[in-house]
Write a structure and sequence with these properties.
This protein is about 70% helix and about 0% strand. It has about 575 residues and is mostly helical. A hairpin with a 2-residue loop joins strand 1 and strand 2.
C-alpha cells in the first residue's frame, strides 16, 4: 500500500491528463453509433429517391396500400396471441416453482433458462423438422399410426408461428412473476390460511392480484418481442405467403431496394415499442409491497399432495416443446446423412459436422465471423458502456447524465429497425461500410450496448467516489485512478457485461440479415440461406453449434458469476 502511495505521489508532477479527451471521445463514438443511424432513419423516411426535398409520400404509400396494411394486422394478431399464451403458461409455472413442493423444481427452472437462451428462430427450424405438413417427424408418426393421407399439423401458418414464439417468450412472464412472488410478504398469505382459506383460494384471492403488475409487464415484453421478431416469421410465414411487419421490411430490401419506404414503414414499430416499454417500466416501478409489523416470516412451500405428479407432468409440457423435442430434432437431423430418414444405422453420421467445420469454406468462415464479430462487439460495447457510465455517474461535464439516456436508446429500437438506420447511414460516403465486417460490428455493438451499460451503471454508482478522490489527491490523473482503482473493483461486472453482449451477438439475425454480404456471412445468416435452400441437415448442424457455444458460455458464467448472471438481459 505504501508503495502504491509513493507511485501515485511520484506522478504528481505530470501536467497532461488525457482523461477529458477520452471521455469526450467516448461521447462522440456514442453519438456515431446511436444518434447518427436513428437520425438517418427519420430523415430518409421523409425523402424520395433522387429528390432533395422532404415529403410525406413514403408514409402515405406505406399506410394507405392494402398490401402493406395486412402485415400490420397480422403482426398485431401474432403479438397478441404470443403474449397471451406466454402469460397463461408462464404465470402458473412461476407459482408452481416458487411456491409449491413440486418435484424437480430446480430442473424445471434450468429448462426454462435453456428456453430463454435459445433463439426462437432456431426453435422454429426445429419445429419445421417436427411439424412440416408432409415431412415432419410428428406428422409422419401420426400418419403411420392412423394411416391418414396427411399429417394434421401444419407449422407453416400464423397459428404455428404463434405457438413457436409463445414457447420462447414464456421465460419473460415466468421471470417477472417469480420475482414478484419472491417480494410478496408471507404475512398476507398466512393471514388468509389462518382464516380458513384453501391454498387455491389464497392463490386466487391474494397472491395472483398482488403479482398482476408482474404478469402485465411480462405480457408487454412478450408482445414487444413478438412484434419485433424477424427470424421465426421469416422461416414459418414467408413460405406460407403470410407477411408481418418485419418480413415486409425484409421484402423492401429485395430488388429493387426501397430504403425510404422501409424507413417510413418502420416508424410506427419504433413508436409502439417506445410507448409500451415506458408503460412496462411504469408498471414495474409501482410494484411495491409494504409489510406492517416487522420482517416477513420464513416462506413455506404449499403441499400439493396427490397433485404433485400430475402437475409436474403438466409443467413439463412447456420445456418438452421448447427445449427437449427441438433439441432432439436438431441433434438427430445433424447426425443424419439424410434428415428424413433419421439417425438410424446406415444413416447415422458425423459428416455434417466435418462438412461445417472442415470441408465447407462458407460455413467455416461464418463460424469464424460470428465469433470474431461477437467478440469485437462485446469488447467495444463493454469499453464504451464503462466510459459512458463513469462519465454519467461522475458528471464529468455539463449534460453528462444525458449520455446514459442515449446509451439506453437502442433498447427501444427493434433490431430490424436499427439495421435499416445503420444501412441508411453507412451505405454511402463518407463512411461507406456496407459489405465490410465493420458495419456488422457496429450493428451488434449498438444493438446490445444497453445491456452492458445497464449492468455497469449500477455497479459504478455503488462505488464510493472518495476512493478515486483520494488517489487524485495523491497526484494521480483521473485515467490512472480509473485504471488502478475503479476498473479492478468492476472486474466481475466487466466480465459479465462482455459475456452478456457476446452471447446475443453470435446468434443475432434480425440486424445481420440486412447488413451481411457473402464475404461477411455469420452463422445465423448461413442458417437463413440454408433453410431457404431446404438444406436442413446444414441448418441443424449450425443450430447445434450455436446452442452448444451459448450453453457452454452460460454454464461457465453461472459458475464464475453466480445465478443472477442473466438478470440484466431479462429486465
Amino acid at each position: 500500500m505504501a508503495g502504491d502511495v509513493q507511485r501515485l505521489r511520484g506522478r504528481a508532477g505530470v501536467a497532461f491528463d488525457p482523461g477529458p479527451f477520452l471521455f469526450v471521445g467516448a461521447a462522440v463514438v456514442l453519438a456515431v453509433l446511436v444518434i447518427v443511424p436513428l437520425g438517418w432513419l427519420f430523415a430518409i423516411s421523409l425523402q424520395k429517391p433522387d429528390a432533395g426535398s422532404f415529403t410525406l409520400a413514403n408514409y402515405v404509400e406505406a399506410f394507405t396500400s392494402s398490401i402493406y396494411l395486412r402485415p400490420i394486422l397480422n403482426s398485431l394478431i401474432l403479438a397478441l396471441g404470443v403474449a397471451t399464451i406466454a402469460a397463461l403458461l408462464g404465470t402458473p409455472l412461476a407459482w408452481l416453482i416458487a411456491r409449491t413442493d413440486l418435484p424437480g423444481r430446480a430442473w424445471l427452472r434450468a429448462l426454462i433458462t435453456a428456453a430463454f437462451v435459445t433463439p426462437s428462430f432456431i426453435g422454429a427450424e426445429a419445429w419445421i423438422l417436427l411439424a412440416a405438413p408432409n415431412s415432419g417427424w410428428l406428422n409422419r408418426a401420426i400418419t403411420s399410426f392412423t394411416h391418414a393421407n396427411h399429417g394434421p399439423i401444419d407449422i407453416f401458418t400464423l397459428g404455428g408461428a404463434i405457438f413457436v414464439m409463445a414457447l420462447y417468450n414464456v421465460p419473460y412472464t415466468f421471470t417477472f412473476v417469480a420475482g414478484g412472488l419472491e417480494l410478496l410478504p408471507v404475512e398476507l398469505e398466512d393471514a388468509s390460511s389462518t382464516l380458513g382459506a384453501s391454498a387455491w383460494r389464497t392463490m386466487r384471492a391474494i397472491t395472483l392480484p398482488l403479482v398482476t403488475p408482474a404478469i402485465v409487464a411480462g405480457f408487454i415484453m412478450s408482445f414487444l418481442e413478438a412484434l419485433a421478431e424477424f427470424g421465426t416469421p421469416a422461416f414459418l410465414l414467408i413460405p406460407a405467403r403470410t407477411q408481418v411487419v418485419t418480413t415486409q421490411l425484409y421484402l423492401f430490401f429485395q430488388f429493387p431496394v426501397r430504403t425510404e419506404l422501409a424507413a417510413a414503414y418502420a416508424m410506427p414499430l419504433l413508436a409502439v415499442t417506445l410507448g409500451l416499454l415506458l408503460l412496462q417500466r411504469r408498471i414495474l416501478g409501482r410494484r411495491k409491497f409494504t409489510v406492517v409489523g416487522g420482517k416477513g416470516g420464513r416462506r413455506r412451500l404449499i403441499a400439493l399432495g396427490p397433485w404433485r405428479w400430475p402437475l409436474l407432468a403438466a409443467a413439463l409440457v412447456v420445456p418438452l416443446c421448447s427445449v427437449l423435442l427441438p433439441y432432439l430434432a436438431l441433434l438427430a437431423t445433424s447426425l443424419s446423412r439424410i434428415w428424413s430418414q433419421g439417425p438410424v444405422p446406415g444413416n447415422l453420421t458425423l459428416y455434417w459436422y466435418h462438412w461445417a467445420l472442415v470441408e465447407n469454406e462458407a460455413t467455416r468462415g461464418a463460424i469464424i465471423h460470428s465469433l470474431g464479430y461477437g467478440a469485437a462487439a462485446a469488447t467495444l460495447a463493454t469499453l464504451l458502456a464503462f466510459l459512458i457510465a463513469y462519465t454519467a455517474n461522475r458528471k464529468l461535464f455539463p449534460g453528462a447524465a444525458a449520455l446514459g439516456i442515449v446509451c439506453m436508446a437502442p433498447f427501444v429500437v427493434p433490431g430490424i429497425v436499427l439495421a435499416i438506420g445503420i444501412y441508411a447511414a453507412y451505405s454511402h460516403p463518407p463512411l461507406l461500410l456496407y459489405g465490410t465486417a465493420a458495419i456488422l460490428i457496429i450493428a451488434f455493438t449498438t444493438r446490445f450496448l444497453p445491456i452492458a451499460y445497464a449492468n455497469l451503471n449500477t455497479m459504478i454508482a455503488a462505488i464510493n467516489v472518495d476512493l478515486e478522490n483520494a488517489a487524485r489527491t495523491l497526484g494521480a490523473t483521473r485515467i490512472r485512478a480509473l485504471r488502478t482503482i475503479t476498473a479492478p473493483l468492476l472486474r466481475r461486472g466487466l466480465l459479465a457485461s462482455w459475456l452478456l453482449v457476446f452471447i446475443p451477438a453470435i446468434r443475432e439475425l434480425s440486424s445481420a440479415i440486412f447488413l451481411f454480404t457473402p464475404r461477411t456471412a455469420t452463422m445465423t445468416t448461413q442458417i437463413f440461406d440454408f433453410s431457404d435452400a431446404g438444406n436442413y441437415e446444414a441448418v441443424a448442424t449450425l443450430a447445434i453449434l450455436i446452442l452448444a457455444i451459448t450453453l457452454a458460455i452460460v454454464s461457465v458464467a453461472y459458475r464464475l458469476l453466480g445465478r443472477d448472471f442473466m438478470e440484466t438481459t431479462r429486465t
